[in-house]
């Protein structure tokens, strides 16, 4: 039978009560591309806003195979055991094939956490651009917080831009790395390392322990070359084994130490404010872009303009200018 559409107030009531079924439905609403769902979703979010913000948000990134799912399972159980509360695990996965099942979609990736009564695991939204996917994840963070989740993990695959998106919505950015053959620093982009508040080297077990320690030293040395972070916090580098559960406590002691530190010096709130601002502009940009490219007139004349640019008849700038003039002229 078709489910009756809840009203905004019914959503909010259910969410604030911590009803997981209603929370899941609200996340689905946020993810929906249908305009009437989007309008309702925005109303629900607005009404949830007073109940949000009381969590720590941690971004967790690493290349495929780094051990993210293994680690998040263990990290999640650790923080729930050590600090109580409730944990939501969300994801940003811009590659559509992966979102069809592997990243978090497959609950067996987080075996223990997925059956824990105080956890909520939600796969990455699928549709749309990275910006669109990321915005939905950020909105899901708010819904989860309103539902009483005071710990939020946001997972992403370490492939570049998705880290920036995750970084723009978390309080602490944790980068999972592996020890390589001594050239581990080459494969990792400087920009990503600069975003990290902590770098943790996984699989420090068995024959790999010494290599992991060496990699940690390399990362520490590399971090010293970066300008001092605005937070005043010097990113730490630790080694651990997600599989054998070694070094897990140290990682979370570090995260909580950071949170205490930045709450005291004001950076915690500052970073969240900057993120809110960023998402306001990001949403405006996305909306303008979508509207522009979906405009009938623009869609009709765009190919011709492109051709003229390619054949050297007009410059890129004047073609763009012309399209924009037409678009905004039609707006008036
Ligand atoms: P993801 O792709 O980043 O989510 O990585 P997974 O968690 O699926 O792990 C990839 C592979 O590395 C799996 O075969 C894991 O069993 C293995 N693995 C994960 N953590 C560890 C660890 O701490 N030590 C060792 N030796 N293997 C690990």
The CATH superfamily of the largest domain appears as: P-loop containing nucleotide triphosphate hydrolases
Reading off the top of the CATH hierarchy, the class of the largest domain is best stated as Alpha Beta
- What order do the strands of the largest sheet run in, or round the barrel if closed? 3-2-4-1-5-6-7
Number of helices, counting only DSSP H or I runs of 4 residues or more: 15
Overall mean confidence score, pLDDT? 90
How many strands appear in the DSSP assignment? 7
For the termini, the CA-CA separation is 46 Å
Bound molecules: guanosine-5'-diphosphate
Order of helices and strands: HHHEHEHHEHEHEHHEHEHHHH
How many individual domains?
Answer: 3
Largest sheet: 7 strands, parallel
Poorly predicted spans: 97-102
The shape is globular
Task: Report the CATH topology name of the largest domain.
Answer: Rossmann fold
Please give a structural write-up:
The protein has 332 residues and is of the alpha/beta class. The protein folds into three domains: 1-49, Up-down Bundle (Single alpha-helices involved in coiled-coils or other helix-helix interfaces); 52-264, Rossmann fold, CATH 3.40.50.300; 280-331, no CATH class. The chain contains 15 helices and seven strands. It has a seven-stranded parallel beta sheet with strand order 3-2-4-1-5-6-7, sandwiched between helices. Helix 11 (209-224) links the parallel strand 6 and strand 7 (236-239). Helix 2 (20-31) crosses helix 3 (35-48) and helix 14 packs antiparallel against helix 15. The radius of gyration is 22 Å and the shape is globular. It starts with 7 loop residues before the first helix and ends with a helix. Residues 97-102 have low confidence and may be disordered. It binds guanosine-5'-diphosphate. Guanosine-5'-diphosphate binds next to helix 4.
């Amino acid at each position: 039978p078709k489910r009756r559409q809840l009203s905004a107030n019914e959503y909010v009531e259910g969410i604030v009560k911590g009803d997981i079924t209603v929370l899941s439905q609200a996340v689905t609403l946020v993810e929906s591309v249908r305009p009437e769902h989007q309008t309702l979703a925005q109303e629900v979010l607005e009404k949830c806003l007073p109940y949000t913000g009381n969590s720590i948000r941690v971004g967790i990134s690493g290349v495929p195979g780094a051990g993210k799912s293994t680690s998040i399972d263990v990290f999640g159980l650790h923080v729930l055991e050590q600090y109580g509360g409730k944990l939501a695990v969300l994801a940003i996965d811009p590659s559509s094939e992966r979102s069809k099942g592997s990243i978090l979609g497959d609950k067996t990736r987080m075996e223990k956490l997925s059956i824990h009564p105080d956890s909520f695991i939600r796969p990455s939204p699928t549709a749309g651009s990275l910006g669109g996917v990321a915005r939905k994840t950020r909105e899901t963070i708010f819904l989860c917080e309103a539902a009483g989740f005071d710990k939020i993990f946001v997972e992403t695959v370490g492939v570049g831009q998705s880290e920036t998106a995750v970084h723009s919505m978390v309080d602490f950015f944790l980068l999972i790395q592996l020890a390589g053959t001594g050239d581990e620093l080459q494969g990792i982009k400087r920009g990503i390392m600069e975003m990290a508040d902590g770098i943790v080297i996984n699989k420090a077990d068995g024959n790999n322990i010494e290599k992991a320690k060496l990699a940690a030293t390399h990362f520490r040395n590399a971090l010293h070359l970066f300008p001092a972070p605005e937070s005043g916090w010097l990113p730490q580098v630790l080694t651990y084994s997600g599989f054998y559960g070694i070094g897990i406590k140290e990682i979370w002691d570090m995260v909580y130490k950071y949170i205490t530190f930045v709450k005291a010096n004001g950076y915690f709130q500052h970073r969240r404010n900057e993120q809110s601002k960023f998402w306001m502009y990001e949403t405006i940009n996305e909306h303008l872009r979508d509207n522009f490219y979906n405009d009938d007139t623009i869609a009709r004349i765009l190919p011709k303009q492109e051709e003229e640019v390619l054949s050297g008849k007009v410059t890129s700038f004047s073609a763009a200018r012309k399209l924009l003039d037409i678009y905004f002229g039609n707006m008036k």
